[in-house]
Write a structure and sequence with these properties.
Structural class: mainly alpha
Number of strands: 0
Strand content: under 5%
Oligomer: single chain
Low-confidence stretches: none
Distance between the termini: 7 Å
C-alpha cells in the first residue's frame, strides 16, 4: 500500500546541516574581539538555516503538494 512518508535521508541531512551551522556560529563567537569572525558565523548560521529549511521542504514535498499524492511507479 502507498504511504506518504517524509524522506528520512533528506531530513537527517537537514539536521546535520543545522548542527554544523550552529557549531560554526558558536565557534565564531568564541573570541569577543574578533568582529569579522562574528559576521562570518552569523552568515554561516543564516545559510545553514536556509539550507536546512529547503531540505525539510524537499523531504516532505509529497505532503505539501497535492499533485504528488500518487504511486505512479507502483513501488512496494
Amino acid at each position: 500500500m502507498f504511504k506518504m512518508k517524509p524522506q528520512r535521508g533528506t531530513l537527517w541531512l537537514a539536521i546535520v546541516v543545522l548542527v554544523v551551522g550552529v557549531a560554526a556560529f558558536f565557534d565564531g563567537h568564541k573570541y569577543p574581539g574578533d568582529i569579522e569572525a562574528h559576521e562570518r558565523s552569523n552568515i554561516m548560521l543564516a545559510l545553514s538555516i536556509l539550507v536546512s529549511g529547503v531540505l525539510t521542504i524537499v523531504a516532505t514535498s509529497r505532503m505539501w503538494f497535492k499533485h504528488l499524492w500518487h504511486d505512479r511507479y507502483g513501488r512496494r
